[in-house]
Structures are given as structure tokens and as C-alpha cells.
Amino acid sequence: MLSEGEWQAVRLTFLVSTCAIGISFPFAVGLAWVIAKKSFPGKWLLEVFVNLPLVLPPVVTGYFIIILFGKNGWLGGWLEESLGMRLIFDWKGAVLAATVVGFPLFVRPIRLAFEQMDQRLIQAARTLGASRWDAFFSIALPIARPGILAGGALAFARSMGEFGATIMIAGNIPGETQTISLMIYSLLDSPNGIDLSLRLVSTSILVAAVALMIGELLEHHQSKRRQEGRPSEGAQ
Fold first, then answer.
1. N or C end of the chain: smaller count of CB under 10 Å?
2. Are 15 and 9 a contacting pair, CB within 8 Å?
3. How many CB atoms within 10 Å of residue 2?
């Protein structure tokens, strides 16, 4: 059984990851659609920017978050003065860090789903009088649902394991910003830290494995549906 402090870390981690997915969702869908379906000069720069958090060291990502959203940052100062929203050393800062680092994993499966979607379905809906938005919400979004769910599962797993950017912006405050990863880091500095952290390590492995399994199953299901649909599309 987990101790009260460990449960706090688990609950906060789930809260942060869930909020990160909720914030990411509309932006991930919108950017995935733009990357998959639109052509414009400099598109490759947008793709590089979206995927950059995957290859940057997390502390570098945290550095740029502080530059933008710190108390004296370009956006952080305005948020605190205008809305009273403080991100530094606050759980909302952990949400921001998790959103940024998990975003590329959210976008990619959705983009692949949009790329493999039959464009004739959208054209048929437009021919029947549907607006662009109607066609998108009634045709494209339901078709891309497996990709959205797969991306959400992968981003959720990545958010749960976030450490570097989180400790940069949110710190490691027990009960306030201390997620599972940060608590494991703290426990390792204490006597018998390896033994004490075993429960949280096991919990994080289990949750991450389940999220990855869900993502893989959804991607497999999406691939199977595409393969089943190819003969009928060819027959048309």
C-alpha cells in the first residue's frame, strides 16, 4: 500500500497529466490537420517546431518555458498581473511542462490518421452542402478518433513521467508540485531510498505500460481498419 504522501504524488500526477491532455487536445487536432492536409511555404519549420520537445533535453525545454512564462517572462508577467495566474512553483506550471513535452506524441498519431483518411469523403460531404466545419466535425474527426485516442494515451504516459521541465518551472514541493517522478527523485536522496521508492516506481511502470498498451492497440485497430477498407475503396 502507498503512504499518504505517495498517494498525494499519484493524485497530483494524474491531475497534471489529465489537465495536460485536455489543454493539448484542440491544439493537437488543429495542428495535425494543418500538417496533414495543408501545403504552404515553411511547413517543414512548423513540423520541426512541433516535434522539437521530443529531442531537446527536458531541462532546455524547461528553460524556454521559464523565459516565456516566468514572473518576468514575456507571457508570465502578463498572466500574473492580468489574470492572477502564477505558474512558477505552482502545480499549474507542472501542467504546462507536461503539456509541452507530451504535445508531439499527441500530434503524430492524429496527423497520421488525417493523412490516411480518404479525402473523397470530405469532398462528398461538401458536395452535399456541408460547410468545412461541418465536414470536419462530422466526417474527419470521427474517422481520426483512434488516432486521437492513441495520441492521448501516449501523451498521458509521457506526461506522467515528466521530470526535467517540471522541476525547472514547478519545483519539487511536497503536496503541491511533487509528482511521482519528483518524489522518486527525493526518496533516492534519503536512507534506504531505493527500497522506499520501489512502490512508486512499480506504480509508474504499471500506469505507463497500460497507457502504452492502449495506444498500441488503438493504432493496431486503426491500421486494421485501413487495410479492411482498401479493397472496397479500390472497387469504387
1. N
2. no
3. 12
